[in-house]
Amino acid sequence: MGRSCNLLFALVVFILLHTSLSTLPNIITDEASLLAFKSHISSSDPNNILATNWSSSTPVCSWIGITCTSRHHRVAALDISSMQLHGTIPPHLGNLSFLVSLNISNNRFHGNLPQELAHLQRLKLIDVTSNNFTGAIPSFLSLLVDLHILRLSSNQFSGNIPSSLSNLTKLEVLKIQGNLLKGEIPRELGDLHYMTVLNLDSNHLTGSIPPSIYNITTMRIIGLTNNNLTGELPTTICDHLPNLEGLYLSRNYLDGVIPPTLEKCRKLQILSLSINEFSGTVPRELANLTSLTGLYLGGQHLGGM
Ligand SMILES: *[C@@H]1O[C@H](CO)[C@@H](O)[C@H](O)[C@H]1NC(C)=O
Ligand SMILES: *[C@@H]1O[C@H](CO)[C@@H](O)[C@H](O)[C@H]1NC(C)=O
Ligand SMILES: *[C@@H]1O[C@H](CO)[C@@H](O)[C@H](O)[C@H]1NC(C)=O
Ligand SMILES: *[C@@H]1O[C@H](CO)[C@@H](O)[C@H](O)[C@H]1NC(C)=O
Ligand SMILES: *[C@@H]1O[C@H](CO)[C@@H](O)[C@H](O)[C@H]1NC(C)=O
Ligand SMILES: *[C@@H]1O[C@H](CO)[C@@H](O)[C@H](O)[C@H]1NC(C)=O
Ligand SMILES: *[C@@H]1O[C@H](CO)[C@@H](O)[C@H](O)[C@H]1NC(C)=O
Ligand SMILES: *[C@@H]1O[C@H](CO)[C@@H](O)[C@H](O)[C@H]1NC(C)=O
């Protein structure tokens, strides 16, 4: 009697466990997401790599571009960069709930990044560089609070830079150069205290550079070249930038004098200020920058060094 009761109990536990597990997302969900993605990729995949490789007859974790977690056997990384793929991103990608790294750079994907990607709370890296995405920079990106690297460069993103990106407090790399962004640089970006690279080159940004940007002590590279930025550089520019290696501000409408205090950015290697409206003389103090390998000041009326 006791024994058959135990058996019955075990059976009930087994059935409960089994049904609850099969309704939870698992590698089958991941496979379905990726196959849905594959069906949105047009046949311009010239070598038909995905068509032959992403097949139900082989385990998902051995598909090209897929890396799985060792513990749960779930898809952790999707890297299909530089495969000449053409298509759109379906909402199903938002079901890859263990995804940490998404790299679809250097293809020809177009359309929008679907809202469902906001479900991917483990994402640390998004790289969609060099595609043909359009529309605003999605505001849902600010919900992906584990992001360390966000690269959206060389697409056709338009509108303003959302100030909500300052929610991504772990962000180290933010690259959005080569898009169609307009408006001002949100001063809230200065709240990103771990940022090392900020590149907003070649957009249509206006207004002055928010001084909060110069407050990020981890910063190594600031790239704002080829926009429509105005205003002066503050004399305090280098007070909190001990790690700055590159300051790229060419091709804007910046004016005033070149601050001699730039010498306080001790590690500066590249200082690019050409084709602006700076006046006065080139400060002697720049000669103190012993790491400097590139100094670009041409295209404006400056006195000698
Ligand atoms: C898919 O590509 C991977 C990586 O190149 C390779 O190891 C695997 O054998 C391929 N599988 C099939 C079915 O082509
Ligand atoms: C995956 O996502 C799609 C669209 O977001 C949804 O309709 C579908 O039910 C999901 N599939 C699974 C297996 O979770
Ligand atoms: C994404 O892939 C490209 C091409 O393979 C590579 O150059 C790039 O560094 C990758 N992105 C990130 C953030 O690792
Ligand atoms: C990108 O999209 C635009 C408009 O949607 C189109 O005219 C252009 O040909 C596309 N470029 C590429 C490389 O697909
Ligand atoms: C900022 O992140 C928090 C979680 O840390 C989230 O609840 C909130 O909605 C986010 N705000 C925006 C504007 O995205
Ligand atoms: C700067 O503004 C002018 C005038 O509005 C415009 O013609 C030009 O294309 C803009 N340049 C950039 C890089 O946005
Ligand atoms: C820079 O940081 C200091 C100290 O954290 C703060 O008092 C100051 O307001 C900040 N400046 C800007 C322009 O954000
Ligand atoms: C920096 O340069 C100025 C002017 O050339 C010089 O007087 C000064 O001693 C230098 N400072 C340091 C810390 O090297």
From TrEMBL:
SUPFAM superfamilies listed in its UniProt record: L domain-like
Keywords: ATP-binding, Glycoprotein, Leucine-rich repeat, Membrane, Nucleotide-binding, Receptor, Repeat, Signal, Transmembrane, Transmembrane helix
Gene3D superfamilies: Ribonuclease Inhibitor
Alphabetical list of Pfam families matching this protein: LRR_14, LRR_8, LRRNT_2
Keyword Repeat: yes
Gene Ontology molecular function, alphabetical: ATP binding
Cellular component, GO annotation: membrane
Signal peptide: 1-22
Biological processes annotated in GO: defense response to fungus
Topology with respect to the bilayer: Single-pass type I membrane protein
Subcellular location: Membrane
Presence of the UniProt keyword Cell wall biogenesis/degradation in the record: no
Record-linked PANTHER family: DNA DAMAGE-REPAIR/TOLERATION PROTEIN DRT100, NON-SPECIFIC SERINE_THREONINE PROTEIN KINASE
Name the UniProt record assigns to this protein: Leucine-rich repeat-containing N-terminal plant-type domain-containing protein
Organism encoding this protein: Solanum verrucosum
